[in-house]
Specification:
Blueprint lengths: L4 H29 L4 H37 L11
Length: 85
């Protein structure tokens, strides 16, 4: 099997996403254990993410991310799995 550079880059990106999700999940659990409400944890995480992205990519990068997240929210990506009839 021939592996292309694009294939390797996709695998690396997926590994980064997985590692990042694991780190965020651990921080979320730690916040809950400390008695912090989920809404406060979420707001802090979003504020940090948007501030850091704004430092690096400016307003356009922020707006692009927010639009992608909005589309995913409208599609139900962040809700528990539901049975569809």
């Amino acid at each position: 099997m021939h592996v292309t550079v694009a294939d390797l880059e996709a695998l690396i990106e997926e590994e980064k996403r997985t590692t990042c999700a694991e780190c965020h999940s651990a921080a979320w659990a730690e916040g809950l254990h400390a008695g912090i409400e989920p809404e406060i944890i979420a707001e802090a995480a979003l504020t940090t993410a948007l501030t850091e992205l704004g430092k690096r990519g400016g307003e356009e990068a922020l707006m692009a991310l927010l639009e992608r997240m909005r589309e995913r929210a409208l599609a139900g990506d962040f809700l528990p799995a539901r049975t569809r009839h």
